[in-house]
Amino acid sequence: MLQAGFCREIITPGRGIPLCGYFNPRPNIGVLDDLFVRALLFKNGGVTTGIVVFDLCFLSVSLIEKIKAGIKADGIKFGNNLIFSATHTHTGPYIDDFFGVKSDPAYLEMLKDKAVAAIRQAYANLAPAELLAGSVKNNPLAFNRRFWMKNGKVLTNPGKLNPDIVKPEGPVDTEIGVIAVRQDGRISAIISNIVNHTDTVSGDFVSADWPGRMEKAIQNSLGYDVPVLTLIGCSGNINHLDVSNNDEFYGYSEACRIGSGYAAIVTGILKKLKKIPVKKLKVTSNVVGIPFRVISDDEVRKAKELLARVSATASDGNMTSEGLATGDGPVARFFAGQLIEFKRKCSGKSRNFAMVSIKFGSELALTSLPGEIFTEIGLDIKKRSPFRQTLPVTLGMGECGYVPLARCFTRGGYEILPVVGGGPAENTAELLLKATLENLR
Predict the structure, then answer these.
(1) What is the average pLDDT value for the chain, to the nearest integer?
(2) Has residue 25 been placed in a domain?
(3) In this structure, is residue 427 part of a structural domain?
């Protein structure tokens, strides 16, 4: 018999703790809406598993291991069966030192304690449950953000109504998957799997971005505070920017617009979900070594020449998405500095990531992927998976950086540029696809 249990804890940072997601330091000046860690556990027979979702930009392997140690100390032994993921909000705090900004040790300790408490209580809340699932290919709020330009190169976020745009580099995975947990005659939790970047609010206020607004809109529609866990699909090259118009594309109102739009789609899917028989709950996992890119001495020489050529005062500017596309002064200096540091700290080394797949009977599976995965990889996983419905969970079990297709590395766009902590090798997409399909067998 399938059982499910849920709990959530507030993980909103204190005023002044910097926000992660951009290249400039941003100490927060207040809160637009709270951040949460949400734990949804499943048990069937002797197997307990589940997902733990954080309203954060990304997770580190070290934080996940500390959480696992914390629940193990409480006598909970299924930590390796859990998928830990982030919603990728760009208005949440740092959980690791990144881009020269230090994480807050006291916040990290609180975060670990809150996650442990949520998992512990979710386990205590386990009760008989039914599982329902379905999907729709309808994602009008997502766009491929990499474009072929008239000069034959690819740019990321080239700007709205840019006359030099030829066409998008690739597709968008438009499938929105939904899982509902039904207990005591009502839906007690919802899982949504959506392919889109989580970067609409901008600014210096804390916010869960559109996933938080989507949850609130769904709750308002259903008439009670049903928890909604958002699992971000393969969206490393996808965002909400429609370049065909000149509408405003950042701000809290934009998060509300997108959240409400997705809420309408999700609630529409709820009416069409089909019960999933879960005679057997199974978890498979493996550990994948992901190499960093190898940076040549010639690349370092060119980066140093750029730093000498571009005035240091150029770094005073705010690094916007338009600046990233055009490679203006602040952006050029930033990535040149990152390449030099990457060569020193990362080049040629490797790191390990656990990859976890949760299989609900023979029809439904969740599968984790570390980092920001290009949408084509998610489409390939779904096409080749033996399960009728497969939900890829990116930013899962840690962050390895952007994972483009191998052919993208010669085309352009900032996703291919090495930064400290990111910059996986050019064959990473192939490695992750192979490991995922092995897990799903």
Answers:
(1) 94
(2) yes
(3) no
